[in-house]
Design a protein that fits this description.
Layout (H helix, E strand, L loop, with lengths): L12 E5 L2 E4 L2 E3 L3 E4 L4 E3 L10 H8 L5 E5 L13 H5 L3 E5 L1 H13 L4 E5 L7
Parallel strand pairs: 6-7, 6-8
Antiparallel strand pairs: 1-2, 2-3, 4-5, 4-8
């Protein structure tokens, strides 16, 4: 029996490190929202502490079955009240550190899921 690797047309994250990710050959160092179906937009929050309810209301307006929230270098949770717009639209939310969110996003996107990653890319302190 010959096995063939599955091919996915989903947008994927090809690399990551402290304060950056790569999508294809493009290196991105600002917080971003990525979707498996090609969505790519800036997410104006440089640090977890910059987040506000409006950031999650923005995510609720997107067409997704699941949002992966990459909270930066540490796993930190947004206040539950901020997630209410997502819950009202029955959009799942999973919170993890940004690198874990990148890995999980690639797996789900490769499976054909309608997943969006909202990633905080904190710049390392020198």
């Amino acid at each position: 029996m010959k096995f063939q690797p599955e091919h996915s047309d989903a947008q994927s994250i090809t690399g990551y490190g402290p304060g950056w990710i790569s999508v294809g050959s493009e290196k991105i160092s600002d917080s971003i929202i990525l979707g498996a179906r090609g969505l790519r937009m800036a997410w104006p929050c440089a640090r977890f502490e910059d987040l506000a309810p409006a950031h999650f209301a923005q995510l609720a307006q997107l067409d997704a079955e699941l949002i992966l929230f990459g909270s930066g270098s540490q796993n930190r949770f947004a206040p539950p009240a901020w997630l209410q717009p997502l819950m009202a639209r029955r959009i799942g939310v999973e919170t993890m550190d940004t690198h874990a969110a990148c890995r999980t996003y690639n797996i789900l996107a490769g499976e054909g899921r309608n997943v969006i990653a909202a990633l905080i890319l904190e710049q390392p302190a020198f």
